[in-house]
Amino acid sequence: MLNTYLVGGAVRDKLLNRPVKDKDHLVVGATVDQMLALGFQQVGKDFPVFLHPKSKEEYALARTERKQGQGYTGFTCYAAPDVTIEEDLIRRDLTVNAMAMDEQGQIIDPYQGQQDLENRILRHVSDAFIEDPLRVLRVARFAARYHQYGFTIADETLNLMSQISLSGELSTLTAERVWQEMHRSLDEENPEVFFEVLLKCHALEALWPELHRLWGVPNPEKWHPEICSGVHTMMVLQQAVQLTTKSASPSIKQNSTIIRFAALCHDLGKGLTPNTKWPSHHGHEKSGLPLVESICKKLKIPNQYKQLALKVCEYHLHSHKAFELKASTLLKVLNHLDVWRKPEEFEAFVIACKADFLGRLHFENRPYPQEQFLFAVMQAASSVTAKEFVKQGLVGVEIKNAIAKARLNAIEEVQQNFHNVATDIG
Ligand SMILES: Nc1ccn([C@@H]2O[C@H](COP(=O)(O)OP(=O)(O)OP(=O)(O)O)[C@@H](O)[C@H]2O)c(=O)n1
Asked: Where is ATP bound in this sequence (predicted)?
């Protein structure tokens, strides 16, 4: 009979009454050969992890880990029947992740994880915490996820996270791991907490200087009572969360992390404004584009994320000023956004712009009639297609010109219909 325990996130989330996604099991006192003889399938390359023959859940042999080399690689692990459960649990990142549950449902908790769970504290288990720089990002992500329950990070743990960040070790993490943590954080209810934690522990400046530069960059008080561009960006991110959950359309929910990423990047250009020009940021939409490109390249971010982020960065002010734009400018923007081929991306674009508008102190509950207007403009313009002009016998460039003209007329009609709304907000 194997001596197995449920460990890690499954125990933590069970105690928090949250749904358990992955069940990880720990096996104490067994050998690789015993596991194979019982029909388990070995999957781990670096240490002995197996899949259960029926449930396919993960079972890992108890192990200790020592860091040998630099960075995220360079661990030597020792897995053998004499490794105790306490020895396995002490190598883990947080006390709330270092609990085990035996088959009778009894909790094994040598590092006071339950107490920290009750006190809503994310605390490292031992000094070995600093051996793994990924933990800086993991703890920031857990802080974002459990913020809703009132969790905060213990001061000593935050100090260790600063120590790791300032040591330069974060640069040893692969792009994929970093993006995985950022992406998972964007999917949480309070992704802004992820970035705020990274700011506090000096990881933001090490990982994304383009984003870090926004803190301390002022905006005009009239439009941005919160003043700081970094604070504004965090408020926009939170608005993007609100707009991509609950009552959002299925396609918006499906693209929620793409929209949130675009919200995060929309004002990067403000970090480049010379301080002699503050608090105005003329041209920040264009100057932000290479910064968005650079973050996406560094993290090897999927193309869909980059495409929307670039569009929101370049055209968010056009969205806010939609009622003041000429029909020809509106048509140009629709062309740039390629709404004819990507209508769903346009919906995502408008939501990200709306998050920017609402993500300001005291603006949170304002209406954003630009949303309805832009959809009406898009729909009217999209309803014009080549078909009718082909029927009339037009060919080549004549068709192109006729479509453009008809689209302009359609947009002007929508402008007339929205005339009252436009004068109200003007
Ligand atoms: N860098 C890491 C990665 C993992 N772990 C340990 O391995 C467990 C399982 O890791 P993982 O599945 O990545 O995380 P979960 O805690 O299960 O969290 P999530 O809900 O995000 O999957 C963690 O609870 C933690 O005990 C760790 O100590 N340090």
From this structure: 9, 12, 92, 138, 141
3-state secondary structure of 373: helix
Which residue from 73, 77, 85, 97 has its CB within 8 A of the most atoms of ligand 1, so it is best to mutate?
A: 97
| Ligand 1: lining residues by beta carbon, under 6 Å | 8-9, 22, 24, 92-93, 97-98, 132, 134-135, 138
Domain containing 39 — which CATH number?
Answer: 3.30.460.10
* Residue 360 marked in a binding site: no
- In the chain, the number of structural domains is 2
Asked if residue 94 is part of any domain, the answer here is yes
pLDDT (0 to 100) of residue 76:
83
Instruction: Identify the pLDDT of residue 70.
Output: 64
Looking at the DSSP assignment, which residues form a beta bridge with residue 38? Answer: none
ipTM, 2 dp: 0.97
12 assigned ligand-binding residue: yes
Q: Which atom of ligand 1 is nearest to the CA of 8?
A: 24
CA of 129 to the centre of ligand 1 (A): 13
82 is in an annotated binding site: no
Report residues of the chain scoring pLDDT below 70: 69-74, 424-426
Please report whether residue 248 resides in a domain. yes
Known binding residue 177? Answer is no
Ligand 1: which residue has its CA nearest to atom 15? Answer: 9
Q: pLDDT tens digits, residue range 371-380?
A: 999 999 999 9
pLDDT at 44: 78
- Of 247, 241, 262, residue with least CA distance to 310: 262
How confident is the model over 190-246, as pLDDT tens digits? Answer: 999 999 999 999 999 999 999 999 999 999 999 999 999 999 999 999 999 999 998
Same domain, 214 and 105: no
- Find the domain containing 6 and state its range: 1-110
Using CB atoms within 10 Å of the CB of residue 9, give its burial: 0 to 12 exposed, 13 to 18 middle, 19+ buried: middle
What pTM was estimated for this model as a whole? 0.95
Query: What would the two tokens of residue 4 be?
Result: 């197995």
Do the beta carbons of residue 60 and residue 49 sit within 8 Å? yes
Question: Is residue 85 a part of any domain in this protein?
Answer: yes
379 shares its domain with 257 = yes
One DSSP character per residue, 212-237 reads: HTTTT-B--TTT-TT-BHHHHHHHHH
